Amino acid sequence: MKKITFKPVLTAVAAAVALSACTMMPKYEQPQVAVADTFKYDTVDDGIRAAELGWQDYFADPRLHRLIDIALERNTDLRTAALNAEIYRKQYMIARNNLLPTVNASGTGSRQGSLSGGSVSSQYSVGLGAASYELDLFGRVRSTSEAALQGYFNVAANRDAAHLTLISTVAKAYFNERYAEETMALAQRVLQTREATYKLSQLRHKAGVISAVDLHQQEALIESAKADYASAVKNREQARNSLAMLINQPLPEDLPAGLPLNKQFKMTKLPAGLSSDLLLNRPDIRAAEHALKQANANIGAARAAFFPRISLTGSVGTASGELSGLFKSGTGIWAFAPSITLPIFDWGTNKANLDVAKLRQQAQIVAYEAAVQSAFKDVSNALVAREQLDKSYAALSKQSRAYNDSLRLISLRYKHGVSSALDLLDAERSSYGAETALLANQLTRLENLADLYKALGGGLKRETVSQPAAQQ
């Protein structure tokens, strides 16, 4: 019995695949953007860079750690971004598979005869076939596959950006909650002090030492502290509502205790590094570059549309009138049907498509340049803010200590009848105002450090999106 072999067909398919190796994509060249090599106000510290520093090693508060963990697992925006990345990954796999022929197995059986009787004929066949495989001589399919790959990388980079943004947003919402808590504690402490002073002033008023005007002013300060406390409670609850939305659930009751504002960071001198580091680490810059590469690949597909498209359809198998005779000698069959489509006159459609692809590439170049400039602006603004906020913090700390010392001395002098009620009121206002300004500065510094971590692509070398298999 003669053995049926599929080797000639498989050899032909392999040869066709080997021919599909060229592409008409233009060579990609990364746009050169005029930016400084280093950042003004950057620290000279050569310590760990932001991209290599996990958020667990940057933020110190265990309560914040727990909230970020929950947010990364449950946040709806991040889950949507991750699902979009997976959709694009699957779309790339579909486009990549178009480079290879699809082989299907088939089997048929039929019987037919006349209604008036007579003989009945049968026909059975089995075979393997490749349907409409495009011989990619001019790189249209390869360019389309590359565009799909770059589209996936673009969406994956946007997912990384959403990841970073979520960490920063949760941190800033949490800092606002801690700020409100400390503002409440300050207002409560000031209220207790003012109420104690008011009781003493009532006695002095009865003794005729101070006027009713002085007493009413102290009453006003008490009510002011109550109003500040109520405002801080409102801010705390709003911050908690923001956190609940970010983690997509009510705040857990078993969260660990939080740290004070001045203990939130393990390090406050995060080095920005070289500008080249930023180009590698910022996910929005990577997303813009992948969008540019996608546009570059689409030019290759548009160029290939000017050339013939050759498709191959073929099959090999056996056919017999008897089911038992399918694989006997002499039953082998084959079919081969190449087709070619050659554009002749399309009213300028292919030319217009190529022009559109080139214009989109130019638009992506501009978008890439804008992304780089925006990233450098973000980092530069965060660095200059850090520099000036640190100076403000040092000055406000000294101011607060000075006003507190002054209040302590004037309070003693007031109790002994040396200082006036007006002196005491002024000292209390100044001390409370200085402490309030210091707390506000601490909040702004914390938000700045969170923004700087995000702007520098913090932690992304530790947490990267999965990559598809390399295109062959």
Question: Please, could you describe this protein's structure?
Answer:
- The structure is a single chain.
- By secondary structure, the chain is an alpha+beta fold.
- It has one domain (7-108, 122-455): Outer membrane efflux proteins (OEP) (Up-down Bundle).
- The protein contains 10 helices and 5 strands.
- The chain has helices spanning 7-19, 55-58, 62-74, 76-97, 140-206, 212-247, 275-281, 283-304, 349-415, 421-455; strands at 103-113, 120-135, 309-320, 332-336, 339-341.
- Strands 1, 2, 3, 4 and 5 form a 5-stranded antiparallel sheet that branches.
- A hairpin with a 6-residue loop joins β1 and β2.
- The longest helix has 67 residues, at 140-206.
- It is elongated.
- The two termini are 41 Å apart.
- The model is unreliable at 464-472 (pLDDT under 50).
The major β-sheet equals: 5 strands, antiparallel
Q: Which CATH first-tier class would you pick?
A: Mainly Alpha
Helix content: 55-70%
What's the Cα radius of gyration? Answer: 37 Å
**H/E series, N to C?**
HHHHEEHHHHEEEHH
Name of the CATH homologous superfamily: Outer membrane efflux proteins (OEP)
Structural domains: how many? 1
* Termini separation: 41 Å
Content-based structural category: alpha+beta
In total, how many beta strands?
5
- The total count of helices amounts to 10
